[in-house]
Model the fold of this input.
Amino acid sequence: MPELPEVETVRRGLVPVMQGARFMTVEARRRDLRWPLPNDFVQRLEGRTVERLERRAKYLLADLSSGDVLIMHLGMSGSFRITRRRGRKSFGHYYHSRAQHSLHDHVSFLMSSGALISFNDPRRFGMMKLVARAALQHEPLLKNLGPEPLAHEFDAGVLARLCKGKKTSLKAVLSDQKIVAGLGNIYVCEALHRARLSPKRRASTIATRSGQPNERARALVDAVKAVLRAAIEAGGSSLRNHRRTDGALGEFQHNFRVYDRAGKPCPTPGCDGAIRRIVQTGRSTFFCPVCQK
Done:
């Protein structure tokens, strides 16, 4: 499933053609995504302008002139493609021409910018939902999410307070969307390696008894921010289905230090360890048992 960098990459690809543009025509070819689209989905979008296109955790949020917010999630295999309506200019880095609609293009938006935006999802685990802006703080999908890891407010003190007294592992805590929003298996593994912290380490050990951060907390927050920024710069990671809005693959998978590298030498300078794979909470964890303590 796409994590924060992949979703942010998609958001940045959509902004030039979607933000400030009006929905001219909306077509819902299949309404049975993860949840059925509302019956008035098309009517509530057509003629409305996207005032802002934001991201919250792994969700895209299109703030509409009507007061509604279109919440979108890529699911396991979802992607957006942008094509150019005939007679309009190209969209630069994000322009990707395609001759015909795919079998799995379930929803399409023709925007006043001249862009045709198609949502393609072979497995149909993605979703779209319309929610009134005034009710967004009570929306079940969003209300229990933890802080954004790239926000200025997310620092060692915040993470230490969230981990205070927790007996679960650092890997489990960082993967919990109620504690830190948007992180998933790949970037948790990568951040823990950069911070040289074992995924098996008890989460409470990055905080003092009073909940103050120690050096581990500071190193971990720095590592989380660094790996997310590097991944966004590389267009995210493409392991199975992730593609940018121009159809290109992400490239960060070529920079993995530990993820999916079991048995290979640890890339930490001076470390003679080898990457190991273990299973935690039903997911694969990759780490170096020598330099991650």
